[in-house]
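Please fill in the sequence for the structure shown.

STRUCTURE ENCODING:
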């Protein structure tokens, strides 16, 4: 209980050199929390200060009410501090702070009014770092304070200080907001400072935004905007992986250009200066630039060594070998594979059925043979649009070459699932049960002799035909899983390129203050009889938090091309029951 009654006073380092004046900031009586954001220096007009505070309140740009908190004195002599209440203080509690010129000790801090008997704790903080940073793991309330604090009250105070300081960025800390009042804070001397090394970055960023805007306008002119946004057109475009990736990048570019226009006028200035929005834009832009850079590198490497022609020749040879091996495999299955006794009639029928499709696939390859090198050159040229587009086209090309395996798998899985459904229905018939379609449950049912006799015949036929069907199902399911594994690796790589927070990782690598993972408190040596004084230092976020919290939000364009995160047991159950496992939507009920 004693800890909760300690009044914590947060004071910025930038105000230590200020001349005499009054302290302004935010207070919370319930938390016993005081946050100073600036010092209004003397001489001042009390009416102007009152009008200035009322102007901040009416602006409604911060949810933290700003008021006068007390007095500040910076003198060279040891004059006793004033004990009279400042007339601008509207509350019955205030603080008085005092320091001396060229004094390295923390300022003297005393509480007046209601807080007079409560112990004080002075916490000095760097206001500039709080303005440039945001807590990356703010959702994890127990890991903010260097990962060791378990006091939810203290953690919420730290959150409030971060939010409060950032919320007054466009009011108290803005130079143009105060008319005839001189306020000392972290932005007084550095707010409009210009660094020469930022000029090239600003120019490059402006050129990129201009080029992206031109490309966006051209795309809207070439393709009707309403037609592109049509659900029917988008559903058709999203069928191939390349269409999904192009829509994904189009949405990213559109977000970078139009995000400011979508914000409300009263919130636009606050959002433009928000580190969160700046980092989000930086992650999207850096992701696109890195994607294009890697794509161009891969394209130049392929064309420099003339790999498309080499891959085309080798690929055609591999496909011919695959076609011959498939025919040998089917002929082997039509005999006595591994000594298994199969139903000869069904085995011969299925073997010829699949052989016919192999012949169709070989004819399909003969049609593609003259264009194979051109197709590979086109896929290589797509690297100029980004490595993700190159990989998406590779996924579509893989699907095109393995279409026969997909057909074999679907035929075998449907037949196998149909036989299992028939066997389960006949098994329920023997037990006097039936499946109630309306209620989606198994109910009791009375069957006559003819129904039981017919069910027995069907059960016997399906049971003895099941090994033959299961053999073909297992063989073609194995082929299909191999293709799905390769397809999933490519899809995961594309997803990583789309969501990897490149800008956040670079900021963390260079120890930027914009990514705060927590705070650390250091004890400052104090004089006798003075309150405890701490220094609050912003700690950088760990890389695991940066990768998790800074991850770019993925749009739903790739939703149909991603296998759902199902367990191995769930996938095994689907395979045993003969349910289709698509490369898109592993849990889809089709």
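FILLED IN BY: designer on duty
SEQUENCE:
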């Amino acid at each position: 209980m004693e800890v909760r009654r300690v009044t914590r006073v947060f004071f910025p380092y930038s105000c230590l050199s200020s001349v005499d004046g009054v302290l302004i900031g935010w207070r919370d009586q319930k938390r016993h929390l005081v946050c100073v954001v600036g010092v209004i220096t003397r001489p001042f007009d009390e009416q102007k200060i009152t009008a200035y505070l009322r102007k901040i309140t009416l602006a409604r740009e911060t949810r933290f009410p700003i008021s006068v908190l007390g007095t500040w004195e910076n003198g060279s002599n040891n004059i006793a501090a004033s004990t009279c209440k400042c007339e601008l203080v509207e509350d019955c509690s205030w603080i008085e702070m005092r320091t001396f010129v060229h004094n390295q000790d923390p300022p003297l801090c005393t509480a007046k009014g209601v807080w007079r008997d409560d112990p004080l704790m002075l916490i000095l903080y760097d206001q500039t770092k709080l303005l440039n940073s945001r807590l990356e793991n703010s959702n994890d309330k127990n890991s903010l304070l260097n990962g060791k604090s378990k006091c939810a009250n203290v953690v919420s105070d730290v959150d409030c200080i971060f939010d409060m300081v950032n919320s007054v960025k466009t009011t108290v800390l803005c130079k143009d907001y105060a008319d005839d009042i001189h306020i000392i804070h972290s932005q007084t001397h550095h707010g409009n400072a210009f660094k020469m090394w930022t000029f090239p970055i600003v120019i490059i960023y402006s050129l990129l935004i201009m080029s992206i805007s031109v490309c966006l306008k051209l795309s809207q002119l070439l393709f009707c905007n309403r037609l592109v946004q049509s659900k029917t057109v988008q559903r058709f475009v999203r069928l191939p992986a390349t269409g999904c990736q192009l829509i994904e990048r189009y949405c990213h570019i559109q977000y970078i250009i139009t995000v400011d226009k979508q914000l409300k006028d009263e919130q636009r200035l606050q959002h433009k200066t928000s580190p969160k929005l700046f980092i989000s834009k930086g992650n999207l832009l850096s992701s696109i630039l890195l994607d294009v850079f890697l794509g161009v590198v891969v394209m130049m490497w392929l064309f420099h060594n003339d790999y498309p022609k080499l891959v085309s020749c080798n690929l055609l040879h591999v496909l011919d070998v695959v076609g011959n091996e498939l025919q040998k495999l089917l002929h082997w299955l039509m005999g006595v594979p591994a000594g298994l006794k199969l139903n000869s009639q069904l085995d011969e029928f299925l073997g010829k059925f699949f052989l016919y499709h192999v012949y169709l696939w070989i004819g399909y390859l003969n049609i593609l043979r003259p264009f194979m090198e051109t197709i590979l050159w086109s896929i290589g040229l797509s690297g100029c649009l980004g490595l993700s587009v190159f990989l998406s086209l590779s996924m579509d090309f893989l699907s095109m070459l393995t279409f026969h395996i997909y057909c074999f798998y679907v035929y075998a899985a449907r037949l196998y699932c149909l036989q299992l459904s028939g066997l389960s229905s006949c098994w329920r018939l023997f037990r006097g049960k039936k499946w109630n379609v309306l209620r989606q449950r198994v109910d009791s049912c009375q069957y006559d002799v003819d129904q039981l006799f017919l069910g027995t015949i069907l059960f016997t036929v399906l049971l003895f035909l099941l090994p033959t069907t299961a053999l073909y199902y297992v063989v073609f399911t194995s082929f299909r899983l191999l293709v799905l594994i390769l397809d999933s690796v490519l899809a995961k790589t594309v997803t990583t390129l789309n969501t990897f927070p490149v800008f956040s990782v670079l900021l963390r690598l260079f120890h930027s203050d914009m990514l705060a993972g927590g705070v650390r408190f250091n004890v400052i040596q104090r004089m006798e009889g003075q309150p405890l004084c701490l220094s609050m230092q912003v700690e950088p976020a760990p890389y695991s938090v940066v990768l998790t919290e800074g991850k770019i939000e993925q749009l739903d364009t790739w939703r149909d091309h991603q296998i759902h995160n199902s367990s191995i047991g769930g996938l095994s159950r689907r395979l045993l029951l003969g349910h289709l496992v698509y490369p898109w939507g592993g849990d889809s009920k089709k």
